[in-house]
Amino acid sequence: GVGKTTLAQLVYNDTRIKNHFQLRVWLCVSENFDLTKLTKETIESVASEFESVVSWVSSVTTNMNLLQEDLSKKLEGKRFLLILDDVWNEDPEKWDTYRRALVTGGKGSRIVVTTRNKNVGNLMGGVTPYYLNQLCDNDCWYLFRTYAFVDGNSNAHPNLEIIGKEIVKKLKGLPLAL
């Protein structure tokens, strides 16, 4: 991909972010979206940060009202950063249900969503989405050269430089392919 997850990881692991938020949660959502499972995973992640025992509610019920109530209580007043990585689901009703449990979080709480789907970004509301673009050929070549050649110097191997530039064209600006 273009680096959405990598960028989110850099944010998540930044020392300033760690110091700013009382709680940080990273959840990989992917294609198989299950609201109950996502809510339980959120509860378990929050509980593991603040409690010595994992929440019993999330382990014994699939009742969404109970799960949401439990999550709301656990987040109440805590400033959190929640990263939802690789979101595909476009069902606004499910996302509204999930978000309702998050509103008790402290002032300044943030939710970051990575997705390939612009519709998902719009569903989440909030701030204007930040779109990552593919790298231009020059930037892609620079990255490739840096990793492929000693000291990034391709001049010592002109034949390999030609092959390298052909490889870069095939990558179509996707840094993850490097």
UniProtKB/TrEMBL annotation:
Stored InterPro entries: Apaf_helical (IPR042197), NB-ARC (IPR002182), P-loop_NTPase (IPR027417)
Organism: Lolium perenne
Pfam families attached to this UniProt entry: NB-ARC
Stretches assigned to the NB-ARC domain: 1-149
PANTHER family assigned to the protein according to its UniProt record, in alphabetical order: DISEASE RESISTANCE PROTEIN RGA3, PLANT BROAD-SPECTRUM MILDEW RESISTANCE PROTEIN RPW8
GO MF, one annotated term: ADP binding
Protein known as: Resistance protein
